[in-house]
Specification:
This protein has 3 helices and 5 strands, in the order βαβαβαββ. By secondary structure, the chain is of the alpha+beta class. A 5-stranded mixed β-sheet has the order 3-1-2-4-5. It starts with a strand and ends in an 8-residue tail after the last strand. About 20% of the residues are buried.
């Protein structure tokens, strides 16, 4: 029997949406107020969905303590209260929430061995959320 488990986490981070490959006018036209030179912040809501067989002895897809510990160590401690523009994964990528969602998925997919990672959902505002479930192709 396969089941899905979704767990929510909160973290705060700032970013500036800006591409070095575009002019100042192009950046303003593309990113609008999110191109503010001083950046801006969000209180992100992260939802991680894993799946797997329900263990007959525990009745669980995976142990929540294991999942929480992994997400805390590998994701929350990395991004909480950080300026995303200063992190190595965003040196060549604009730190959009779409790109952040992909990064978080890849971190979880590489390291969480206790269940299959189905998807990551990242809510930026009450109006914007993004999901990623892997592309099947490596990112450049």
């Amino acid at each position: 029997m396969k089941a899905h488990l979704s767990r929510r986490y909160l973290f705060s981070a700032s970013h500036r949406l800006h591409s070095e490959h575009m002019s100042a006018d192009e950046n303003r036209a593309t990113y609008g107020k999110c191109n503010n030179p001083h950046g801006h912040g969000h209180n992100y809501r992260l939802e991680v969905t894993v799946s797997g067989p329900v263990d007959q002895s525990t009745g669980m897809v995976c142990n929540l303590v294991d999942l929480d510990g992994f997400v805390e160590r590998e994701v929350l401690s990395r991004y909480d209260l950080e300026n995303l523009n200063t992190l190595r994964e965003f040196v060549n990528n604009v730190p959009t929430t779409e790109n952040l969602c992909v990064e978080i998925f890849e971190i979880l997919q590489r390291g969480f061995p206790h269940a299959h990672l189905e998807k990551v959902r990242l809510e930026e505002t009450m109006m914007n959320s993004f999901e990623y479930s892997g592309s099947g192709k490596p990112r450049k």
